[in-house]
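Field reference: sequence -> structure
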Amino acid sequence: RGGTAVEVIDDKTLALPPLDLRLAHEVIGRTRVARILKAYGDVPAADERAVALVLVKLAQLAADIPEIRGLDLNPLLADRDGVMALDARIAIAPVRRLHKGRGHPRFAIFPYPTEWERSIVLSDGGKAFVRPVRPEDDALFRAFFARVSDDDLRLRFFQSVKHFSHEFIARLTQLDYARSIALVAIDPRNGEMLGAVRLHADADYDRGEYGILIRSDLKGHGIGWKLMQIMIEYAGWQGLNVVEGQVLRENITMLAMCRTLGFKVKPDPDDPTIMNVTLPVQPAGAA
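Structure field:
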């Protein structure tokens, strides 16, 4: 129920924007009103997906227009045919940026960066779709890791990895886009993941550390090269000054790619098995 009863009923739940449909359904499920959205007696179920879609669009509206400080739809009527807002109020105010970088000026969590979705052509003429990773990509990563050799996993993570726990996958897929980005290459024909590159900025948005992994049966198709180029472009867009990483000395393929891309390659002073690679980044828009 809405209208004047909303303050009496006091049925509230909180979530940080941005939202996707999965998160929106979770928000609805934490409310008492969720029970009456279901069918009961001779009353058909309301269209819960339509309610969830309203939440997603409201969150996106707040992302697109940072001057919005508050938005109230009351009442919002929902039945089996959809939803209808009978009244709405919006409060606006000047924007106050909460953090450095390209993140949303007010959000604690940077919205999904759709501007970094793109189609690419590989060196063999094949095509791939590159996009930022999403929290729901758990199954995608598990299927991907199943097609990466033990040795390639060791070269990426510097240790043998046999088990991919939920926590391990969550660290790869649940990111704060204001601080980290992971870009995955997807085969548009079957939706399979071909590779991924990751970049994590330091607290000062000065340097970013990268990591990359390509499916073992797809080396030599230019996937890693394309992902590295996009990652470097992203670093410049974020205003980072340096991209850096650590590569095992035996990983001659990665070291050769780094040198070709302009990275400086030097031995790690504390570990003879590791090479440190660094690349000065040109800011976005610079000549």
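Note: The two ends are 57 Å apart (CA to CA).
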